[in-house]
Design brief:
Length: 376
């Protein structure tokens, strides 16, 4: 079929993106689903800081590629062998999926699946297939989803069925921001009641971590960001304190407030200064949870003697250590109960014509979650 999609031909184009236009809105060809694949009519796709990283070239991917890795839509067709989904099902589309056979998958860690990681780096689906092209030339899949399009062919392991009364523009956020932020708190850190928590970076992922920390029963929840305009929403969602990241007394204030530092510091930005601050505000015996992804080849430093003598833990959390089939139904139920008000994170709904401009807004930290409506 022919459809409209946002195609990136080159990484590393300069800002502002409204001028360099890393995404070209074009008509592309999409083959129907093969065996074990599913055709989705995409209804909504979120813009994430990971999209900015790809546009900037911090992590290389095969191009040209149709972007988008956080989305929701309707099943329109299933390939032979797909038995757990049917046409007209409403689904969340998530990056996390596994082969079910490799070492991480057998240990319930599909976010670390060796097979899916390899296929993602090659720009193909988990089974090695590629269904996108333009005028006969190949176009690659982004993270097995390519949600910046009117339709997508994906593997069923990346699809989680949801109730029909959940708005697509809210459901899309569950594909990455909720999975990553909530999962980091529930799965990776396993925040306990009464704990003290700091979240560095109050974008979509960070605010989900704030909400999850509240649900987990954390007594102190500190939101940290460079933009004070995000503080009101952070407090409404569960932050008990907010602190400017560029305040020269930021570390001292947090250590004083928590009587020596927090139990868990979630570094959501993926930047050295944020990591250094996270380590500085973590109490002895506490944990720094690295959630944000920076450049693939960037190295961070820490004082090893202090790490040992203070028994701090540095722990990575990729996609919230998520098991989608287990976790997303729980997160969706928390949303429906009003305990995870993800809809509060929506900044605006956009069409393809606003996509590149919206990247600039996201890069400047002026928005939380913008939602692309491909059929708008």
């Amino acid at each position: 079929m022919r459809m409209t999609a946002a195609v990136m031909y080159e990484q590393g184009l300069p800002k502002p993106y409204a001028q360099s236009m890393p995404f070209r809105i074009e008509e592309v060809d999409l083959e129907g689903p093969g065996e074990g694949e599913v055709l989705i009519e995409v209804q909504a796709a979120g813009l994430c800081h990971s999209d900015l990283s790809q546009v900037a070239g911090l992590r290389k991917r095969k191009v040209p590629v149709v972007g988008g890795h956080e989305a929701a839509g309707i099943v329109r067709e299933v390939g032979h062998g797909v038995t757990d989904l049917a046409p007209d099902d409403h689904v969340v589309m998530t990056v996390v999926s596994g082969c079910g056979h490799c070492r991480p998958c057998t240990r319930s860690r599909p976010s670390l699946c060796e097979s899916v990681t390899a296929s993602r780096s090659q720009g193909v689906l988990g089974n090695g297939a590629r269904r996108l092209s333009r005028n006969g030339a190949p176009i690659y899949h982004y993270s097995g989803l390519s949600g910046f399009a009117q339709y997508a062919v994906v593997m069923p392991g990346s699809l989680i069925k949801m109730d029909r009364d959940i708005p697509f523009e809210d459901a899309a956020i569950f594909g990455c921001a909720v999975t990553t932020g909530v999962g980091a708190v529930f799965n990776t850190a396993r925040v306990r009641p009464g704990a003290s928590v700091a979240v560095l970076g109050l974008g979509g992922v960070g605010l989900n971590a704030i909400m999850a920390a509240r649900i987990a029963g954390a007594a102190t929840i500190i939101g940290i960001d460079l933009n004070p305009g995000k503080f009101e929403l952070a407090r409404e969602l569960g932050a008990t304190e907010t602190v400017l990241a560029n305040d020269p007394e930021c570390v001292t204030k947090i250590r004083d407030l928590t009587k020596g530092g927090v139990d868990f510091a979630f570094e959501v930005v993926g930047a050295k200064p944020a990591f250094e601050m996270a380590l500085a505000i973590t109490a002895p015996g506490g944990e720094v949870i690295g959630v944000g992804l920076g450049a693939a080849d960037e190295s961070y430093q820490y004082k090893h003697a202090a790490l040992v003598t203070q028994e701090k833990v540095i722990r990575g959390s990729f996609m919230g250590s998520c098991v989608p089939q287990r976790d997303l139904p729980l997160y969706l139920s928390l949303y429906k109960d009003g305990r995870l008000p993800v809809g509060r994170l929506k900044s605006e709904l956009i069409g393809f014509d606003r996509l590149n401009t919206s990247l600039d807004l996201l890069d400047r930290g002026e928005v939380v979650r913008q939602i692309l409506r491909p059929h708008q």
